[in-house]
Amino acid sequence: MIGALIAKSKVRKGFSRLNNRDVASFISDWAEDATFIYPGYVSVSGEYKGKKAIEEWFQKFMEQFPQISFTLKHICVQNIFDMTGTNHIAAEWDIKLTNKEGTQLQNSGVTTLDTKMGKAVLVRDYIFDSEKVRIGWGEG
Known about the structure:
The protein has 4 helices and 6 strands. The chain is an alpha+beta fold and 140 residues long. The protein has one domain (2-136): Nuclear Transport Factor 2, Chain: A, CATH 3.10.450.50.
């Protein structure tokens, strides 16, 4: 169960870093060859490969949304006994944000993370209301 505690702690820290707009610390827990998949049909949707591309995506996210606040609801860890940092994790969250045009939005989603040696290697976001994603990115 120590593995689950460590994994949950890292996920909590990651969302806290996003809330604090600390992209550099947030990205430090990603593998160099990681992949991030963002859903929807907006200009930033798609698959981003490599730590640099993912960091650029999150910088763009911070620019588009000057105010963000994630609230973690649940974190599930597949292998609770893992001690090597290789696992599958799911985090359910709510978010309140304001885009650079001043539009305030709320949404919910789930992020799944595959980790190896304690680093995120594959991260996928699933967002409840895709129309709010379009509005938030100014494409609705």
